[in-house]
Amino acid sequence: MTDDTGIDPAVPPSGAGCAECDAAGGWWFHLRRCAACGHVGCCDSSPGQHATGHYRATGHPVVRSYEPGEDWFWDYATDTLRESGPELAPPASRPVDQPAPGPAGRVPADWARSLHR
User: How many CB atoms lie within 10 A of CB 34?
Assistant: First the structure.
């Protein structure tokens, strides 16, 4: 662990998409990566809100955006945005050829109506 509570930069991400959505055949809007264990979950705008669910189930407070070109962190425990943090084990994001929302083939045509705002 680093001095940043809840961050282990050596742990790789759990996969290319939200673990729970993939298991259930669901879809996501954007992805977040747990900075403690690497779990990839969907954002709070997504139907499943699995990243927040992971925090509630495990107490792992810090996630990093798992979107291409984004490197910000969010701390659920303090409700604060961190514009940067330690470099995490690769890959740094979902595959760039995977769409958002994603994954390809599972996103309904009316997906925007299912977003949490």
Answer: 26
The span from the CA of 98 to the CA of 18, in Å, is: 12
Residues 6+ apart with CB under 8 A from 91: 12, 13
Q: Are 53 and 60 in contact (CB under 8 A)?
A: no
Question: Phi and psi of 111, rounded to 5°?
Answer: -55, -35
Residue whose C-alpha is closest to residue 28's, from 12, 17, 14: 17
* Tokens of residue 55, six digits: 């925090």
- Percent of the chain at pLDDT above 70? 96
* pLDDT tens, position by position, 23-62: 999 999 999 999 999 999 999 999 999 999 999 999 999 9
Q: What does pTM read for this prediction? A: 0.94
CA distance 19 to 50: 8
